[in-house]
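This part of the workshop introduces the protein records we will be handling. An example says more than a description, so a record of this kind follows:
>
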Amino acid sequence: MSAVKWFIYNVLFGIVYVAMLPSFLLRMKRRGGYRARMGDRFGRYPNEILAALRHEPRATSHKPPIWIHAVSVGEVAVAGQLMRALRAKEPSVRFVFSTTSSTGWKQAEGQVGPDDVLIYNPLDFGGCVRRALDAARPRAIILTESEIWPNFIRAAKKRGIPLFLINARVSDRSAPRYRKLRWFFGEVLRCFTKIFAQSDLDAKRLTDAGADPATVAVTGSFKFDVAKRNSPKEEELRAWIGAGEILLGGSTWPGEDEALLRIYAELAKTRPEVKLVIAPRHFEKADAVEANILKAGFGCVRRSKGVSSASCLVPSAELKHEDSREGNALCTSRCLAPVYLCDTTGEMMGLFGISTVAFVGKSLCEHGSQNMIEPCLCGVPTLVGPYTENFRPVMSDLLAAEAILQVPDEASLKREILRLFADPEARAALGARAQAAVERRRGVVDRCADELLARLRA
């Protein structure tokens, strides 16, 4: 039965991969950065990478490396924080860091050390996985959050490699599927030496899916430790935007930009000095966001390009629409500030640090939400929409501490933003509660690093 199960999985995985290949190729073309290392996907590495994986020529330790895998920017930050904690406790430790996206790769480049190796994760086909493991020969494998690759995990288990899942979570949408397919996922989850779950609910969902309860521990979210203020970047971004209060839309998704522009149009009537900054989750969507900004009647200043082709000076409401083109060219004192579009990577934390009020995206028009811990750590009054399932335990803690505002729709978001900008004392109180709530929950990464090393040394 087991052989049949895995035969079916491999056939279905192959079919799904071929079906999704056109969208993968399109994404690769848009984001770039894949072609030079495409062989990594098949477990075939350049000679210099093979030499580094064989601990040549700068070996600082005779111990094999620890393989750590992360995908999204948030997961890469989690992995990087754990790497630093492990390195502080065992300075000679080396890492193989794998990711699957070019954006993840760019973030991972800032996490690896000179003796570490950065690769793309192999496709979850048997041959690709075997070649990758033969080349890396890790002493342990650490996967982040929900990175469950069955062939990769089973192959590592067969080789006796300890497997760990950190900051583990199971989303609301995935939980029923995991439970129904317990006969499949149970065998995979039981391969892990230890699973560090974000919450009691995540732990229950993992055991319901077949994980061994003895291997599952509830630690809290690693992301409370990951967030760090970036003062130099704050200064750089402040110089780009200039003085004044800032309404930030961080990691926004389609639909949320338009909502913020509508809210900003209303806010600007009474607070024209406030500046709107939009930082879309995926920088390749910046052209569409700029089009929405111009359509809403604002100019646009892009972080990557400076002033856009449209003038950054926009006629105020008192100018007639038909005079707007002339107004753009000639208007001086009767102009609204432009909308600032941050279409670069690695600057979100700096933006949060200089914001007056922040909205965290993928929570109003999309399901899941992005990281709301970062603005809270900066003491920024933070708002999210109703869809925050990717940060369920974090939201539970923040809501219990009255440290964040969650709104059900755009109308409520508008009402709360207008209220906060009109009430500095309320802003200060909410920001202080947010910062305190985050600080109280830090320390998870260090405790998990201690346990990981203890298990590897046993």
Q: What stands out?
A: The chain has two domains: 29-220+442-457, 231-440. Residues 231-440 form a domain with the Rossmann fold fold (CATH 3.40.50.2000). Confidence is low (pLDDT under 50) at residues 307-335. The CA atoms of residues 40 and 120 lie 5 Å apart.
